Amino acid sequence: MQDSQETRRPLSAAQHGIWLGQQLDLKSPVYNAGECIEILGAVDPSLFEAAVRQAVSEAEALHARFVNGEAGPQQLPGAQTGWAFHLDDVSEAADPWAAVQAWMKTDLARTVDLNQGPLFAHALFKAGPQRFFWFQRAHHIALDGFGFSLMARRVAELYTAKAAGRPVTGGFGSFQAVLDEDVAYRNGPQSSLDRAFWTERFADRPSPVSLASPAPMSSTFVRQTRVLPPQLMERLQAASKTAGLSWPDLMLAATAVYLHRLTDAAEVVLGLPVMNRLGTAALRVPCMAMNIVPLRVPVRPEASLLDMARGVAAEIRAMRPHLRYRYEQLRRDLKLVGGQRRLFGPVVNIMPFDYALRFAGMPTIAHNISAGPVEDLSIGLYARSDGQGMRMDFDANPACYEAQDLNAHQGAFVELLEALAAEPGLAVGQAKTPPTRRLPPEASAATLASSVLDGGPLPVPARPVLELITQRAHETPDAIAVEHGQHQLSYRDLLQHAQALSAQLLQEGVQPNTPVAVMLPRGLDAIVASLGVLLSGAGYLPLDPQGPSSRTAAILEDAKPALILQRAASDADPMARGNIVLRRNEAAPASAPSPVQAEGERLAYVIYTSGSTGQPNGVQIPHDALAHFVAGATHRYGVQREDRVLQFAPLHFDASVEEIFLTLCAGAKLVLRTEEMLQSVSRLLDACAEHGITVLDLPTAFWHELAYSVSTGAARLPPSIRLVIIGGEAALPERVARWRAAAGAEVLLLNTYGPTEATVVATTATLSGPPSPGAPEEEIPIGRPLPGVRTALIDAQGKLAAPGTEGELYLLGGGLARGYLGRPELNAARFTSLGALPGNPRAYRTGDKARVRADGQLVFAGRVDDEFKISGHRIDPTEIETVLLAHAGVRAAAVVGQILPGGTRRLCAHIVAGTPAPASAELRRHLLAELPAAMVPSAFVFAERLPRTSTGKVDRNALRLVMPPEDTAATAAATEFERLVLQVWEQVLGLSGMSAQDDFFELGGQSLQTIQVANRLGVALGREVPVATVFRYPTAAALAQALEHGEQNGAEGGGLSAAMLADAELPEDCVPWLQKPGTPAAPVPSPSTPWRQVLLTGATGFVGAHLLDQLLRQTQARVVCLVRARDEAHAMERLRESMTGQRLSTASLAERVMAVPADLGQPWLGLSSARFHSLAAECDALIHNAAVVSVVREYGSLQATNVRGTRELLRLAAAVKPKPLHYVSTVAVAPQANLSPEVPEAFVPAHAGLRDGYQQSKWVAERLVQQASERGLPVSVYRLGRVSGAVGSSIVNPQDLVWRILLAGIPAGALPQLDVGEVWTPVDYVASALVRLSLVSPGGGVFNVTPVPEVRLPEVFGWVRDYGYPVELCPLPAWRTRVAQATGSADSSTTLAFFDLRAGASEPTFGLGTLRSERVLHALSGSDISCPKTDRQMLHRYLDYCVEQGLLQRPPKNR
User: Fold this and answer.
1) Can you give the residue ranges of the Carrier domain (predicted)?
2) Secondary structure class of 1398 (helix, strand, coil)
3) What is the pLDDT at residue 515?
């Protein structure tokens, strides 16, 4: 047969599943199926052979050959002509039927070569003159049970016609039509609907129960056959008819009852074969089309058989539209592939096929010989054509069942069926049957062996950590214990400093067994403080000094520590030791002495985890548990004195406990991570090489980046590293495969698992080297217990889970926590006595599901609740929901964790919004004020209502399947580089449907994620991509342009690209010539004419809110505010929030302000044409203040608002009637002092100083305004300098660059040496002056609103010192390092990025020439508006505001 591409066909989904199964063992005959038809009459063998050959020739699927190529498996159609028809006379045998059975058994054991065929065999046996047996065998890839029946009917039809001499008609349908339908289904919408149906129904992945322990599928099966008494079938049929059911409904329900009786399972999942042919081309085509679907059957002992059968019927009705979705695919969807994981337990196969065949009038009896592979147990029911009743076959895997066990099960099942049929309305729990034989005792032993894992005893007795560290200090006092940057502590010094702090704590009255809060950044002081607290007899409570203040306050309120250790304000190096200050927690009650406890029972530390009540829970770990963990983990990790361990985790993560105490107890060196190490993976590994790090302990999320970089060659593992420990969330199989390929087995990689409640780590799995034989590569184990730890898997009934099935993971051993601080009810629920084990030992209920695979390792299988882990954080969605519901715009909220197809983990918030509905960005800001960044969802989905289960609860399984709507058109239109950027964003953010114009930071991007983006882009492009580039180009389009052409591509003389200069040309259809060049300007309203209505943009910003306030004060006009919002109510709410936040009156908003939703970047400002022209007719003046102000973003990301928005406002000003446009600009458009000695009150030409995107966009906008002025439109331009805080309220703008420098530098004890002078103008002065100028000079040209002397930054920084902050002035590079090491917050990273973007200069260019402001002074003369000078007193009022708002801590000494 010719093998050509033209004749190749795809496999159907059903064929593909069989083909994949055969590939696991090409020699196995497991997929052979056979039927035998007993013919009662004298058969003509030659006619019969002719009939069979013709039927075979018509059945296309029987002739396919299967090949595997680059496109995957395909089938080659053709005709198998050389196959043998076996004819045999066994009539002389002692038992002809036995002889036939022996031959068929041998034939079924033959291997079928799918590459060559044939896929079938036929034989005719003569057992006597009036008795023949016809046997047909076929591989399941070619025929299913219904296919066999089609073949049998066609052969009977052909034989009958040939025997009568009649012409043969009819035939089978087209197999190609079946394949076409299959392709159409898989690519059509119904497949997606079916997938959603099944994944939702089985989202909880119920563990199927069975009657035996799981085992691999065997190539043979064992069978027991019975014929059900006719009276039994009559009773079942009568009962079902009366109840409006079918007898198969009752049979399925009875099967579930039988399984329940032997296993106590509250729910049974049966496998239900379905022929999948009604309404399809396959109804007339012998082929493989059947499917097996999982049928969930709840079993309640109080329910009757009829009640249960009604439930079965209802479930089948719900399933019926979705039966085509392949169970092999569903197993992949539910991650149930590999090992002994199954979708269902026993299969119940009710054969409806009509085998009452006649061959030329001769009657027949059908004998099923083999229905194909059996994983566990298959119950087959066949209506016999000889009138002898219903035949029941129990086919079983011989690795699971012996013949006598199978016979006993079948007999007991028939007895139960008899009892249930006799009283179908009786509760199934009361059915009178002989005692059911439970699972054999050896099965219980097997269950215990596989469901309980024991790490064995501790290798050495557990010793207190303080005793071990003290011993190391005495053994090697001069050895370095801790190192941070250039600073070190020897073991002697560490112990001495800790003892001194302990004495101070005792002097302050610290009580044993109580928590002391340690709120210190990573550093030597944090280690000293933790040990000092332990030496005092108290336990340490680590808090994040950079965390949200509200969360810190909640923890302090809950734990009530009497004492708090925190960093003193000091100008010393933040890495150095000695910056600890001890303060008393005034809110804590006086602590009474705790009851005397044994040393080991005393509190060692408390770490808070996310809580289901919306409040975090404090986990209390005693000294015994810590010592127990250190003994077991030190042995498993092999930590020795020669090791150098990188301390990576924050102190408030329990991974820090592992890093700190395993290292110090072994006498090794602890190297504290610096913020500089986090700038990229390569920098981290370079630092590891520099410090000789041997043990690297990383959160799995960060290790994913490291594995990717190492595997692609973008970074190299230092030769010093011998061990890498990961944990915190599930490791991605793809990353593990990359690591194995790149690192091999030379570096030991341990995947760890353990909740805080079990002291850091309970189990470990070795991931380095090749995977375990037979284990699927996509399955990453969490391993086996540490020494001294036991694990148990418990099913829903509180019993040990059956072997190979999932159960809830319980942890036992000496490492368990004391319990939760002040949570007695939660302690009772989570720390329990485990009755399933001898002695009822104390255990911790993890809430995690797991199973034990064949190699004895645990595999994580999800959660029994809604907790989710992301970036090492244990997140209870309820805590996030509680914060969301505190927002006025949220009526209902549900947060779920989602794992996307690529493995990215994210949180998705589903919101039912009130009116006005909040924007996603607004909700992000609200959450960030209360929660750590990792707990803020990256995706928000708004809906009218949340889905509910039948019990009224929020259906979280349904929500996990909901994805935010995608915009595939936007991605399709992107360039190659834009698609690369968007692909990386999707991986990092866990979002889809983004466009090239989206802003990374507005989508929720955070500082750590910028590192991930830069790292992955660098790997993809084979060159370094600086993190600063990601900051500078936040849109995908701009970043792609910079990556493809370079950051300065296209820049011409004057600092502007050709595209920017094109943007600076004002189209005449926007502002036509209102006068001929050189003629007088068109008349404008007289300054004395009061405004009736004025339009204002940017009213929700810092300056804009004050402008609105002044418009309401200085005029009687109605103010129309264009606001980015969903509707008018939301727009007004945004205005109200802005005014309130800046301490401005909202009394006149409702009466005089109209809030209009708009988008300045869109044509017509995003308004309808009618609304646009209505505003053009009604407004007397326009004040355009809106702008995106950013010191790090490039022009392309600012162009929409700053340039296109200005153009559309000019269009509005010129439409209907000419109206004055008052444009708010910036002195940043002016040339610097080295280019021009002064800044005139006039338009300036392009110049080389226009270097950043903000400067460029504002200059282009000014150029548009200038052209409008030349065409006769009355315009004014107001250039602002450094807009400082309000004189009246002292409120400042923390987003202003100078305030960013102050807020980042003061906590670090350092400010940069910047000899720069600027004009500072208070915001309330700016607003009042600008409104006054617009009233007295409607078309007045350019005004520099800077009528005061400049302020020198060194002088400002001196005033900061005078306020009491001990700040040191240092060179810019040193200051940058100090800030990075001291904070590492996202805000600080953005500030530092401003300076990184000006690499090559020692400092950014701030200086301007003399600012001319004569026109401003002249226009304001005679008014009471004057600009106050910024001085020491004013700055101190600003600092008072920052302290009051929590932006800064109060200085140690005040003025």
Assistant:
1) 972-1047
2) coil
3) 95
Identity of the residue numbered 51:
A
In angstroms, rounded to a whole number, what is the distance separating the alpha carbons of residues 769 and 750?
Answer: 11
What is the residue range of 1208's domain? 1058-1444
DSSP character string of 375-395 = SSEEEEEEE-TTSS-EEEEEE
Q: Do 1005 and 917 belong together in one domain?
A: no
Interatomic CA distance for residues 1272 and 1270, integer angstroms? 5
Closest CA to 892 of 881, 877, 906: 881
> Distance between CA 122 and CA 739 in Å, rounded?
52
822: three-class secondary structure by DSSP? coil
Where are the alpha helices (H) located in 1319-1426, listed in sequence order? Answer: 1323-1336, 1353-1363, 1372-1382, 1386-1396, 1414-1420
Q: Evaluate whether 1112 touches 1151 at the Cβ level (below 8 Å).
A: no
pLDDT at 605: 97
Sign of CA dihedral 43, 45, 46, 48: positive
Nearest C-alpha neighbor of 899 from the set 1109, 658, 731, 695: 731
**DSSP string spanning 580-609?**
EEEEE-TTSPPPPPPPP--GGGSEEEEEEE
Buried b (16+ CB within 10 A) or exposed e, 49-64: bebbbbbbebbbbbbb
Token pair in block for residue 1143 = 């301490």
Give the pLDDT confidence score for residue 992 in this predicted structure: 67
Q: Are 768 and 707 in contact (CB under 8 A)?
A: no
3-state secondary structure of 1291: coil
Q: Residue 680 falls within a domain, yes or no?
A: no
Go through 190-199 and write b for each residue having 16 or more CB atoms within 10 A of its CB, e for each that does not. Answer: ebeebbeebb
- pLDDT < 50: residue spans in the chain: 1-6, 436-447, 569-572, 1048-1054, 1079-1085, 1384-1386, 1399-1406, 1455
- 1001 with 1131, same domain? no
The reply to whether 1007 and 1124 lie within a common domain is no
**What pLDDT sits at residue 1191?**
61
Gyration radius (Cα) of the chain, Å: 39
Query: What's the pLDDT at 446?
Result: 43
pLDDT of res. 912: 87
The tally of domains found in the chain comes to 5
Residues 6+ apart with CB under 8 A from 940: 908, 909, 910, 911, 920, 923, 964
Distance CA 1445, CA 1320 (A): 22
Which residues does residue 750 pair with via DSSP β-bridges, in sequence order? 725, 766
pLDDT of residue 787: 94
Residues 955 and 976 both lie in one domain? no
The CA distance from 534 to 1131, in Å, is: 54
How many angstroms separate the CA atoms of 282 and 276, rounded?
8
| pLDDT given at position 1237 | 80
Note whether 702 and 738 are within 8 A (CB): no
**299-327 burial, b for 16+ CB within 10 Å, e for fewer?**
beeebbbbbbbbbbbebbeebeebbbbbb
Q: How far is Cα 664 from Cα 685, in angstroms, rounded to an integer?
A: 23
CA 284, chain centre distance (Å): 46
Q: Domain with 111 in it: what CATH number? A: 3.30.559.10
